[in-house]
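Most newcomers find our protein records easier to grasp once they have seen one. Sequence and backbone structure share a record, each on its own labelled line. To make this concrete, we reproduce a full record directly below:
***
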Amino acid sequence: MKRFNRLIIEIILIFIALAALTDFMIISDGRKKHGREYRVEIERTANKLETTMLDEDGAFIMSPSEAVRSIDLSNKTYVTNISIFDPTDEENAPSFFTGNSDYSLRLIGGVLFRFDYTPVSTVTNTLLLFCNIIFCISAVITVLIMLYLKFKLLKPFDSLSQVPIELAKGNLTFPVKEEKNKFFGKFIWGIDLLREHLEEQKRNDLMLEKDKKTLLLSLSHDIKTPLSAIKLSAKALSKDLYKDPEKKKEIANGINSKADEIQDYINKIVDASRNDFLNIEVDSGEFYISNVINEIKHYYKDKFSLSRTSFEISEYSDCLLKGDCDRCMEVLQNVIENAAKYGDGRSITIDFAREENCLLITVSNTGCTLPDNEVIHIFDSFWRGSNSKGKEGSGLGLYICRKLMQQMDGDIYASVHDDLMSVTIVLRQA
């Protein structure tokens, strides 16, 4: 902000310097241009005084003061005043030769006249005034624009500069001041929403971690009892302490029962971890498919043009669908990202079809190397196909997509035809 303030001051100084330079150039040019003209006008005025005041023999036919009053100075460009030297006036005589204005002296009929003049014409003065006004208006407008940018753009953005740093440090309680700003209002609101989301996620993670530790401690304690029983029974059998076959059978059944208990605890751990991971919220409502497709087209058009991948979206009729618009976009983006990752990069297409009051969106890509017997597993959690070697991933993307589509009362499935992989999203119409 300090640099911007310094920039405003520098701009004002530049305008002042330009105005001063322009004035100097105009005045210099005026002096050169009008130097001869004002001398000519003084000579003509002096000649007129002489012809008005004196006759051909040089005798006075009119007093000097009357002759001066007969001269109309309003139509003069340079001469502004005519004074008469009176040597008998001791009080005012010295001031005749002093003053701030430029003047020229003429002796006419034995009388000394002083002609005051401006060396620069009124045209030049008008030009100076006009240029200075233009410079002032330009400077004021420029400063106002700079101040507007400062308070409407730079200052709100500067107030947000600390927010990402605090979020990176884990300080999620850092306040984000709300401002009614048409440029950054939505951005500020989004930053604050992100902060609240991260804060809630952190709180949920801490609660989850606490619950996991509590669960592990509880299960470890519960597992100890059947595990101790198994160890004692196995030790008794290994030392052949029981000779009765029925007793041995009873102990074996006991071991099997305790093993089942441990298996139940393991299943609880697995279910708990899955439930924590699948805590996905869906805001069910209604949305137009064009809202989703337009965002997809806007995002991937430039991305695929850079990679020279043919990306085509078929014609479709806009319709109202049931579900969560953001989650639908998330599913479609996930499917397209997989098509780009596991395809050969030649072509990705999006096609549309309608069946039984449902809209089917099919994303197809060329270069599929996934065996047919693996297609049924691509929606399983943590499962990755044989074509995923050397590619990053967790095996959760399509699993999450299926869960999201199920929560939106839809579906998702895949098929392979030769080297063409197709994933179809099924959405219900409203």
